[in-house]
Amino acid sequence: MEMSKLAMVCLAAATALSIGCSDEASPVTGGTGGTGGMAGTGGTAGMGGMAGTGGNAGMGGCMANRAARTGGTAGAGGSAGTGGTSGTGGDGGGLRPLPDIYTTGKAINYSAFRAAGPDEGEIPSDADVLEDLCLLETDGYDLLRLFGADPVSEKILQLAAEDFPQMRFQQGIYLGGLADASCSSTINDDQVDTGIRLANTYSNVVTVSVGNETSFFSRYMPLNCLEGYITRTRENVTQPVTADDDYTFYAGLNSVGGDRAGSKPDTILPLLDFVSIHMYPITNYRQWDWKQLGTPAGPDRAEAMMNAALATAQANYQAVYDYSYLDASGTTVTVGESLPIVVGETGWKWRQTTPSQEIEAYAALPPNAKWYYDLMQSWEGAPDGPSVIFIFEAFDEAWKGTDDGWGLWDELRMPLYALCGTPAGSACNDPVYEGAGYFTP
What pairing do the DSSP bridges indicate for beta strands 143-145 and 168-173? Predict the structure, then answer.
């Protein structure tokens, strides 16, 4: 059998990175790969993905190209990022303003894991992390969100301080579920202690986020425990502090059932300097009219669906903005009146990874992912919108299984179609969103 273009790309990667390969691996062309072969993609869906295979392909070349451009060598950067203020915190309780990069920067969620992931103790190599940061720099990303306070985050912060001193980070603190309201957890305590240390050691850490979507397991994260973790962190760092969570939590819409206790944000909001919300129209597709059957099938229906996705994201943001609570002084205020709101996570899958999600069979395609990415960029910084949107996410993470397929680059660090027309990608198709999927009965 003749070796496919994909297999040749993978073989080149295998030679450079010593990884395994197969002719079926990591589709980057967007066609029908990852859609489960299901009908209903609007006929030409997937055609827009081919352009995603060009650009700076990574796989060892980005750092070498960067050194050639700058006339320097890897590791030649400054030492910016090592020398915060140690455990001072305590600014009298006033709201800490967000740094300018939350208005001027380009933000993305970044995880460095390439293989087994954190549960298996994976520690990415220095070379892999540097390659990732180089690829992100190529497309202008200078504000990166990290998820946990651990050796991998410290490696990222240290290498960025040395080689990419312009990059800034939102340092995350991972919080796991608790057995009871005693708030006793060695893992969580270690995360908080390490997060505080990283924030006070690396000046490229400009904000700190305590926990990630804890409302999804709020039966095992009592509010008094979350309040304690936030307070302890904020008292020992000088950076603005938030607690990343789904928009439903901060809009007071958190449901009851399963692992969710229906917690409200009222006692959390007075402890924060800003609110960071997550929203995924493609995941919450049952909450809006994604099928758009009132529009004729074809490109117009695809456009109607993607515009409805934007409207849904904007409505999620507005619901948080309008939520009322009592601030620290006992005054009734809305979230939007009292705190900056940023979008900490949003994205669109470029391939189907969750067969049970009907929308993915029709619209988890490269042109749709590109479309959503462009819509988010157009909304970012608008007078009635967030100052910054952290795209989810930089790179695909195969170890996540059904929660994969969100990346702007695939797991081999090949740029995907969402990056077309950028320094990191190839030329876009004409028309740009040709092949975008939509529902067909």
Answer: parallel
Residue 216 in contact with residue 171, Cβ under 8 Å? Answer: no
Residue of 299, 240, 296 whose CA lies nearest to 432: 299
Please, what is the angle between helix 186-201 and helix 151-163, to 10°? 10
* Cα gap 76→64, rounded to integer Å: 13
Mean pLDDT for the stretch of residues 105-119: 96
Residue identified by tokens 């708030």 is: 183
Phi-psi region of 286 (alpha: psi -120 to 50; beta: other; left: phi over 0): alpha
Q: How is domain 28-419 classified at the architecture level of CATH?
A: Alpha-Beta Barrel (3.20)
Please give the structure tokens belonging to residue 286.
């049952």
Residue 230 burial (10 A CB sphere; 0-12, 13-18, 19+): buried
Nearest 5°: phi and psi at 411?
Answer: -70, -20
Please state, in angstroms and rounded to a whole number, the distance separating the CA atoms of residues 201 and 126: 19
Region label for 201, one of left (φ > 0), alpha (ψ between -120 and 50) or beta (otherwise): alpha
The whole-number pLDDT of residue 168 equals 99
pLDDT tens-digit map of 362-389: 999 999 999 999 999 999 999 999 999 9
Q: How far apart are CA 352 and CA 368, in angstroms?
A: 12
244 three-class SS: strand
